[in-house]
Specification:
There is one protein chain. The protein is mainly α and 254 residues long. It contains twelve helices and six strands. The strands form two sheets. Strands 1-2-3 form a three-stranded parallel beta sheet, with no helix packed on it. Strand 5 and strand 6 form a beta hairpin. Helix 1 runs parallel beside helix 2 and helix 9 packs across helix 12.
């Protein structure tokens, strides 16, 4: 049977102070070993510090990283399901196709997103796929823009496209993601946003070599990958980088 995780009384948050974190994590692991639990943690990215590379915890929150590491490395019969727009370093290090820790990057919905637009009551069903493509099938973006189309344009997609792009509340979300990036990450984003084609590592380093080292550039690119802002294209001769389509459009529009 599957039990909903309910921390034992000994894990009362009032007594989990920095010095007690290893003990508290040990208590949690012991509980996971004794019971078959499902622990769901949503919005993990809120624990990370801003203006630094992705995956650095805010002051006082490093214990959460220790918890992930312990759950990933320990033998137990429970499961942790984690959602985050930023991949934690612990997950990146411990995940693999043949390892107990797995990571799944969610893509766009494609034609399945038509249900979102239909539920919003948008007219001109023949323009559904065009709208889905414009927002890369992102369900949150489509829900947000669908509301805008309904409220401002009476559900008429064609009228909306006369004023495209309109970001609404989803633009605030993207702006929040970008504002948490380091200065070097923002510089890389600016370079990628202005390029028509994916950019090679050599070309990117040539553009910013006076401002950083190759090692720092690589670290920043990996950080942008963990933020789900940059995609990597692997070729036989060279690796190239490109912004996520929605991020590129937003940065160009901004």
């Amino acid at each position: 049977s599957l039990h909903c995780f309910s921390p034992p009384a000994s894990l009362n948050s009032d007594i989990i102070k920095p010095a007690n974190i290893p003990w508290a994590i040990g208590q949690a692991i012991e509980y996971f070993q004794q019971h078959r639990c499902l622990l769901v943690l949503d919005g993990w990215e809120t624990l990370f510090d801003s203006q630094t590379l992705a995956g650095n915890y805010r002051e006082g929150y490093a214990g959460y990283g220790q918890l992930l590491k312990s759950i990933g490395e320990s033998k137990h019969k429970s499961c942790l399901l984690l959602t985050s727009s930023v991949t934690p370093k612990e997950v990146a290090r411990l995940s693999g196709a043949r390892l107990p820790v797995r990571s799944l990057r969610l893509g766009g919905l494609g034609e399945a997103a038509t249900n979102i637009l239909r539920d919003k009551g948008l007219s001109e069903t023949d323009k559904y796929l065009e709208l889905i493509k414009a927002y890369s099938g992102n369900p949150l973006a489509l829900k947000t823009v669908g509301t805008t189309i309904k409220n401002l344009f009476g559900g008429c997609i064609g009228e909306f496209f006369k004023h495209y792009p309109i970001w609404g509340d989803y633009g605030d979300r993207l702006e929040g993601q970008l504002s948490r990036c380091s200065e070097l990450e923002k510089l890389i984003i600016d370079i990628l946003a202005l390029e028509v084609e994916p950019v090679s590592l050599a070309k990117m380093f040539l553009a910013i070599k006076e401002k950083t080292s190759r090692q720092k550039l690589l670290a920043a690119l990996e950080s942008l990958q963990r933020r789900s802002l940059v995609e990597t294209l692997y070729g036989e001769k060279e690796t190239r980088f490109v912004l996520q389509p929605l991020v590129r459009e937003y940065c160009r529009d901004r």
